[in-house]
Amino acid sequence: MRRILPQPLLSLILLISWLVINNSVHPASIVMGAIVALVIPWITHRFWEIRAVVKSPVALLGYLGVVMVDIIRANFVVARQVLGPNRALRSQLFRMDLHLQGALPVSILAATITLTPGTVSCRISPDQSHLWVHALHADDLTEEIAEIKQRYESRLLRVFGQTANGATSQPSNPGAES
Q1: Would the pTM of this model clear 0.90, i.e. be above it?
Q2: Surface-to-core class of residue 68, CB atoms within 10 Å of its CB (0-12 exposed, 13-18 middle, 19+ buried)
Q3: What CA–CA distances, in Å, run from 55 to 1, 11, 102, 174?
């Protein structure tokens, strides 16, 4: 089965995307979408070095729901902040220690942070043990880190069946690289 569908989830996403883009469930569209969904993963399968197994699809759906709600909510918050007095903004650059392990889970966390308006992932450490984040407005770095860890990292830990290794996240000086 892996030879025919090296990336089954990608194939499903490609098929659904094809049908949505064409706005049709005509048999010809379904056949063409199936061809695209089979050929692209088959051609690119040797480039897919990153492997991560979703241990809890239900947790993944919950995570996606939280991210969507946060993106919508953050758009309004950032609009209010930007349209307000700029001197009220307290932008911060901070380091967040990570419990997640693996290139894909850490990349998903970094992408989520960047997708959420008001925050940007700036750098993942080479050993993937921490992430540099810039926040447009953060009064309390400890609270900001705790919120990211609670809303996103803890959910991703469940999605990928990982456990926290007991490391603590403390704000640190952005000028000191470790």
Answers
A1: no
A2: exposed
A3: 20, 19, 14, 34
